Amino acid sequence: MSTTPSGEPGSTVGRPRLTVVSGPSGVGKSSVLAELRRLRPEIFFSVSVTTRTPRPGEVDGVHYHFTDHAEFHRMAGAGELLEHAEYAGNRYGTPRGPVERALAEGRPALLEIEVQGARQVRATMPDAQLVMLLPPSWDVLVDRLTGRGTEDPEVVRRRLAAAREELDAVGEFDATVVNTDVRNAAAELLTLVVGPGLSPHSRS
Hey, what CATH topology would domain 18-196 get? Predict the structure, then answer.
């Protein structure tokens, strides 16, 4: 079985908690989480806040909460973000309030984020469960990241280096799920998110 939980079994039984999902680019996080959303739409999926300009088709509050640098700085300083980081001149973060409200309502919460962000969440919310989504093998991931061989070799090199760095952090996570098949991976992740007593198979 590819799901390998660790830590303190039973410490959060009976109450919802935040699950943080990380994994290298190309591992299929979007596909697995889309299937998870189909299986259990009641799970709260955190929406990040960003200072980036919306792209065509993006909806405020659905894809991101779009804001300006001043408001983002205020939120970070006031402790309203579980984690935050800067990429390519734009800032991204996870609002604390919606996650805490979902958990208080009895809804499991899920956040997809990079390893660095997962570390910050662990520091600010120690009960959070960290899960890493893994490829079936390194060769499979390389095939996905290199694509058709038409991209600049330096871009490919940076992608592979970033993927290796993410995978090297697997020991910091509470569980792993290998994405050999999207539906199976989503089912295993769901078991981690809501507990083994609520199997998805009867509704898939």
Answer: Rossmann fold (3.40.50)
